[in-house]
Design goal:
The structure holds 3 protein chains of 3 kinds. Chain A is an alpha+beta fold. Chain A has helices at residues 8-24, 34-40, 42-52, 57-66, 71-82, 155-161, 189-197, 201-212, 281-294, 310-316, 319-327, 334-364, and strands at residues 100-105, 220-236, 241-259, 268-277. In chain A, a hairpin with a 4-residue loop joins strand 2 and strand 3 (241-259). In chain A, helix 3 (42-52) crosses helix 4. Chain C has a single domain, classed as Bacterial phosphonate metabolism protein PhnH (Rossmann fold, 3-Layer(aba) Sandwich). Chain C is 29% helix and 18% strand. The chains are: A alpha+beta, B alpha/beta, C alpha/beta. At the A-B interface, helix 1, helix 5, helix 11 and helix 12 of A face helix 1, helix 3 and strand 11 of B. Chain C: It comes from Phyllobacterium leguminum.
Chain lengths: 365, 293, 203
């Protein structure tokens, strides 16, 4: 006997209860605190802040906990919260040159003013599982170099002094804002960089990788990667000057790319730029590679590879959009499926009729 | 602010006022240029993209405390996503909801248009996944926008005609493209083509929201909406051999329900409110024993 | 002091609900062109801006939408302060740069063609003009047809430019580009989107 599918409401409530139960897991295991997540899963928190476009460690930690460690789900939670926040004003551009660096490396020079500063990196660790971390072993406090409280100049500025790298001219126009303006292709570089900054790390990583393997090769050098805190300032019209409202940790990557020059421009290095919240080095580097690839049109290069294609890259780099639309295939589609079912049946009937007509004809002959 | 709902610290109908204003302006332009897709700065919503965020944003921007809201998915009020969206608005706007088409002032829908003809003053809000009717012929927005600007719809006719050449008929069964007031070719959202004629000269205002693709478009009431076709292959809607097994209703869109694994199946109204209203009037289909009238 | 007091007063008492109610009235009117509807005006702007025009401004205008004022309104400092305070309005001098225009004396306004028309690719990037007229009766009768109109709709707005019918035909001929009008008189509103066409011979 047919029972009409009812009770969607009860089913949803039950599913939510079960989800909460599974999220908590075994009750004899202590619940995670947000402090634990924010202190010990920092890079996950950084990714959520960066792709969630909201600098708030506590909320990012909360989102990770609520999302059971699913970072894209956590990013989604943060974005959905962020979008409801009223805007009080706009920050002045941050000065990464004034950054108090915790890590700063350049692959272009052996040594340079301010030095190479490795900072807290996985780079030269041997990836051997450390069973000691199954417990809570004593950890010595880290040491930082003397004088690390002084700003260090940026590689791009050093190269710029010699005129060997393209000049980055800041326009006087207000940069567009991807939150306020629907995308219109072709996009300004500001719009592209904003989109890339919140783009999916995995997607940008794969695209950046593709440029290294010949799909829009750009001869990149990691000119500089720096991680550290910068001051955020907001201009107060009442006061007539900008006042600091807080500090944020940023990762900045300046890729330096070969450029043969053109009829109008002498040979010089060009730039790809990456800037993200927190310590997100892989993302910043991938972003810089993609940014450089996306500048193909502006630099008069042929557009031959996916990473150079604005519409392709920018329309598909947002993981909140991507996961939503891919996963929406789970929703019922039976009305449309019914329509297709009817069509396939009709077409099969026509096909069979045509076949039997052909057989009859052959038999008659 | 009194408009903050008790359930949470969110604004009435979730969106902040500046976002609502932006969406409202887009809606007005959409109404003024029927069938044209107005870009808007779509927001992240607390449900995933592709699950109705465009429709939800449009509804949130127009909804007021006096509205009565109905939400359907696949024609039914009790499908999970319809339930979820209805609960969302109950929570963030404390709005009255209904399952009855005739009682609703705003109906948000995914994939169907109600069977009961809509009346003046009602607003039908469609959830749209891919608003661009030309997208599967030309993936680039820069190109499709030019095609709309120049009214260059040859590609669409070629596609439909290729169908006819290969199959003897047009093989598009849902999201069947329409032309609005002789100007814009428009995607009706993935409704079965059965519903296309209901859009033509409707008494209700029809608003379309595509959240992920950031587009809003509209059909004012009494607007000419013509399904694309050819003189020798006129547009036709789906027909079903049998009436609804529950209410006996004909000339409605039916869901096929598989009863067992031996090929047993039945057909029932996709529009659950339509079906229930008919049964409340005493009408019965084959399965419920009594024959209509 | 007087100007300051009036700049802070007269906005929406319940901004969220007043804006919603006003918007629905505009939306209904835009969806049913040339149909005169009554609206409860919920704002009290300084004269000569009418209450309903003030409510519409508070509903649709914000820092993202440059506003052009005709000289009757633009010369009034108290009014500019009111719009700046309640709608965060940003003013522009050139009609072509405005997303909205507020006009107290439509008979003396610049031709419709001087406002932003949008582009063929983006016809939505066009101006919406909010015109205060004297009345919806007593002027030259105008009959319209098009989307949103069952058959035809007529009104006789008083206070429009004398060559309005000609200007409107031109506006319609630019479709999908073109401007859209919101007309108000007292508590009454009617809209003319660019899709509303004048019926030939009857005007």
């Amino acid at each position: 006997m047919y029972v009409s599918v009812k009770g969607g409401e009860a089913a949803i409530d039950n599913a939510h209860r079960l989800l909460a139960d599974r999220r908590r897991g075994d009750r004899s295991v202590p619940a995670l605190t947000l402090d634990q997540i924010a202190e010990q899963l920092v890079l996950g928190v950084d990714r959520v802040m960066s792709e969630g476009s909201l600098y708030d460690r506590r909320l990012a930690a909360l989102a990770i906990k609520q999302a059971r460690g699913d970072l894209i789900e956590a990013i989604f939670l943060v974005r959905a919260y962020r979008t409801t926040l009223p805007r009080f004003g706009f920050a002045e551009p941050v000065d990464t040159g004034a950054m108090l660096v915790e890590r700063r490396i350049s692959a272009c020079y052996k040594d340079l003013p301010g030095g190479q500063l490795l900072g807290p990196t996985f780079d030269y660790t041997h990836r051997l599982l450390d069973e000691a971390l199954d417990g809570d072993p004593e950890v010595e406090p880290g040491e930082t170099r003397e004088g690390a409280t002084e700003p260090v100049s940026r590689i791009a500025d050093i190269l710029g002094g010699e005129g060997l790298i393209e000049e980055e001219i800041s326009g006087n126009d207000e940069p567009d804002d991807i939150n306020q303006t629907p995308l219109e292709f072709p996009l300004s570089r500001a719009m592209r960089l904003q989109s890339l900054a919140r783009g999916d790390e995995g997607f940008l990583l794969a695209l950046g990788y593709s440029t290294q393997r010949g799909y829009a090769r750009s001869h990149p050098f990691a000119g500089e990667i720096r991680i550290g805190e910068v001051e955020v300032e907001v201009f107060m019209p009442e006061l007539g000057f900008a006042v600091p409202v807080g500090r944020v940790q940023l990762t900045e990557c300046q890729m330096v790319n070969q450029f043969k020059g053109s009829a109008k421009v002498p040979p010089q290095f060009t730039r790809g730029y990456g800037l993200v919240f927190g310590q997100s080095e892989r993302k910043a580097m991938a972003m810089a590679l993609c940014d450089r690839a996306l500048r193909a049109g502006e630099l008069g290069e042929d557009i031959v590879a996916p990473a150079q294609d604005q519409e392709f890259v920018i329309s598909h780099c947002d993981n909140v959009q991507a996961t939503g639309f891919v996963e929406h295939l789970k929703l019922p589609h039976h009305v449309d499926f019914q329509a297709e079912l009817g069509l396939v049946r009709t077409m099969r009937t026509q096909f069979e009729q045509a076949e039997s007509a052909m057989e009859n004809k052959e038999a008659a002959e | 602010m009194t408009a903050r709902t008790q359930a949470s610290s969110y604004n009435f109908a979730y969106l902040d006022e500046q976002t609502k204003r932006m969406i409202r302006r887009a809606i007005l332009k959409a109404i003024a240029i029927p069938g044209y897709q107005v870009p808007f700065a779509s927001r992240e919503m607390p449900m995933p993209y592709g699950w109705g965020t465009g429709g939800v944003q449009v509804t949130a921007a127009i909804l007021g405390p006096d509205d009565v809201l109905k939400v359907i998915d696949q024609g039914a009020d009790d499908t999970t996503n319809a339930v979820s969206i209805r609960k969302f608005f109950e929570r963030v706007a404390d709005v009255e909801t209904t399952t009855r088409t005739v009682d609703a002032t705003i109906i948000q829908t995914r994939h169907r248009i109600p069977e009961t003809p809509l009346r003046e003053g009602q607003v039908l809000v469609y959830q749209v996944p891919i608003p661009e009717p030309l997208r599967f012929l030309e993936p680039r927005e820069t190109e499709t926008r030019k095609m709309h600007a120049l009214e260059e719809y040859g590609l669409m006719h070629v596609k439909l005609y290729e169908d006819i050449a290969r199959n003897g008929h047009i093989a598009t069964t849902y999201a069947y493209p329409v032309k609005v007031e002789g100007r814009y070719v428009m995607d009706p959202s993935p409704t079965p083509k059965f519903d296309n004629p209901k859009m033509h000269m409707s008494e209700a205002l029809q608003l379309f929201g595509a959240g992920r693709e950031k587009r809003i478009y509209a059909l004012p009431p009494h607007t000419e909406v013509v399904s694309l076709d050819f003189e020798d292959h006129p547009f036709e809607v789906q027909r079903f051999d049998k009436p609804c097994a529950l209410c006996g209703g004909g000339q409605v869109y039916l869901d096929e329900v598989v009863l067992d694994d031996r090929g047993g199946r039945m057909f029932v109204c996709s529009d659950t409110d339509h079906c229930e209203s008919r049964r409340a009037e005493g009408l019965r289909g084959e399965l419920l024993g009594e024959v209509a009238q | 002091m007087q100007a300051e007091a009036s700049a802070l007063d007269g906005g929406f008492a319940q901004p969220v609900f007043d804006a919603q109610a006003t918007f629905r009235a505009i939306m209904d009117a835009m969806a049913r062109p040339a149909t005169v509807m009554q609206v409860d005006p919920r704002a009290v702007p300084p004269a000569p801006l009418q209450s309903l025009a003030g409510a519409i401004a508070c509903t649709l205008i914000d820092p993202d939408t440059p506003v052009w004022l005709d000289s009757v309104l633009g010369d009034n400092e108290a009014l500019r302060a009111w719009l700046a305070f309640h709608a965060n309005a940003r003013f522009v001098e050139a009609p072509a740069g405005a997303a909205f225009a507020l006009v107290a004396d439509p008979s003396a306004m610049p031709p419709l063609g001087r406002f932003a028309q949008g582009s063929q690719e983006y016809p939505d990037r066009s101006a919406t003009l909010i015109l205060q007229i004297e009345s919806f009766e007593g002027g030259a009768p105008l009959t319209f047809h098009g989307p949103g109109i069952k058959g035809t709709a007529s009104m006789a707005p008083l206070g429009l430019p004398s060559d309005f019918a000609g200007q409107w035909d031109e506006n319609v001929s630019r479709f999908p580009r073109g401007i859209d009008l919101i007309l108000i008189a007292g508590d009454a509103i009617a809209c003319l989107p660019r899709s509303a066409r004048l019926v030939e011979g009857e005007n």
